[in-house]
Amino acid sequence: MRTMLKKGICIFIMIFSLFGIANAVYEYSGGFEEIPATVTNVYVARSSHKGRVSEKYVLEWTSKDGETIQEGNLFNKYDYSVGDEITIRVDARTHQTMYGNYIPYIIVFLVLFIVSGFVGFKPKKREK
Fold it and tell me: Which of 96, 75, 81 is nearest to 32 (CA)?
């Protein structure tokens, strides 16, 4: 019973990681385009009442459909102010999301797939 539960969980993790790999490869293969975006809001964020204070900003750009897209909660390490226009990388297919580095996602999901395969399906030790 216990080994069946372990195998079931490992199979679930392997299926989850396969979907993760497929999604990351799909996003990575689409490539990116650089487009202009405008800083629409700059604000001060605090992690807790007495926590560290950091300045963050919100970006706005137009997708290929003509829809206005906003991405917020970005650390303001370059001291942007409201109205600044910066160049960002977005997905080349729709311009809906900012383009990230998908190689680490592919590696993490691949390692998760391999480890769960070894844990769930290692051969049993035979007694002599």
Answer: 96
Give me 46's structure tokens.
Answer: 């605090």
- Output Rg (C-alpha) for the chain, integer angstroms: 22
Question: Over 70: is that where the pLDDT of 128 sits?
Answer: no
Full-model pTM? 0.71
* Contact yes or no for 42/56 (Cβ under 8 A): yes
Distance in angstroms (rounded) separating the CA atoms of residues 32 and 93:
8
Number of residues assigned to the chain: 128
What percent of the chain lies above the pLDDT cut of 90?
62
Q: How far apart are CA 24 and CA 70, in angstroms?
A: 22
Q: How far apart are CA 111 and CA 105, in angstroms?
A: 10
Q: How far, in Å, CA of 62 to CA of 10, rounded?
A: 42
User: CB count, 10 Å around CB of 46?
Assistant: 10
> What are 54's strand-pairing partners?
45
